[in-house]
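Internal ticket - ligand job 353, phenylalanine:
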Amino acid sequence: MDTDAALKQIEAAQSLEALQSLKVQYLGKNGLLTQQMKTLGSLSPEERKERGRQLNEAKSRLEGALEAREAALREKALQEQLEKEALDVSLPGYAFPSGGLHLISQIQQELLDIFRSMGHSVVEGPEVESEFFNFDGVNMPEWHPARDMQDTFWLQKPEHFTIRGPFGEDVGDLGGALLRTHTSPMQVRYMIQHTPPFKIVVPGRVFRYEQTDASHEAMFFQLEGLVVGPDITMADLKGAITELARGLFGAEAKVRFQPTFFPFVEPGAQFAMWWAERERWLELGGSGMVHPNVFKAVNDYREKMGLPRAYEGMTGWAFGFGIERLALLRYGIPDIRYFYQQNRLSFLRQFRN
Ligand code: PHE
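stdout (structure tokens):
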């Protein structure tokens, strides 16, 4: 056996498997070195001593070489694995496409925050409404010319569908089914169910059956406000709208009220806000003192439900305006149809929150 040749082979081994077979080849049960060890017995004592010493030395050199080579191979494999699985934590991460709130939702949240700060509760009502709550209950009986101001989508009531009142009662006999034209029906629903004093705001989707153009949509959002109590006055209304204007446009904001007609308020006023930055008035919505006929409709309904007529001697104010209109004016958006019909991301992304 050529020990030097064996050592070279061991040093040249490229894998743990190759190394293992060399080990077997030399040091295994039938390995070359083992076989030579077995021949020692046939030698004379002197020869055996000398030969034994040589073989033992060869054995320990081979073992040392095997061990060293194995360590080197393992180290190399580990290095390779580390390189292969290297994780560069300094690389930029994958960008997760995340959505955002629609501009109208953002403004709605902003508005609700302003009113919450004034102590209003936020409540919502149904979009599919009974003719009673949408019209008759807010002093717009069938014959009233004001009904022409708010043409709507009438619905054919499917058999299984019932419109329910504030207490879950079926109100199918109170007129046709329609898509609500404003959030004002929630005034009636809320008052039937609650006793004054209270302050609420009602955000929600409303519908109008009309020609769509740059400032009209068949569907849009409104915000309704209602405050009722024993001594509520128009001054309270002005205060709340002023607070709203300041919340939206800063401490310097001013408001303006001009007489106008809505069947469910008396007196009625449209209101505008002074936008100092642009030096212009933004005509925003309608408001006024709750009409006695609205309180009467509420009291009658409550009586029918076996509840006390809680609105006698009460006064209140209400307002309502379109949220899109506020957005159009505030951001100089030229066409209300950008919000929903075109649904262009390039437009919507400008208002990403
Ligand atoms: N409901 C009215 C509309 O949609 C707005 C309004 C609400 C006016 C409350 C006065 C009081 O046009």
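Auto-summary: The CA atoms of residues 223 and 348 lie 21 Å apart. The pocket of phenylalanine is lined by residues 182, 184, 224, 262, 265, 285-288, 318-320 (CB under 6 Å).
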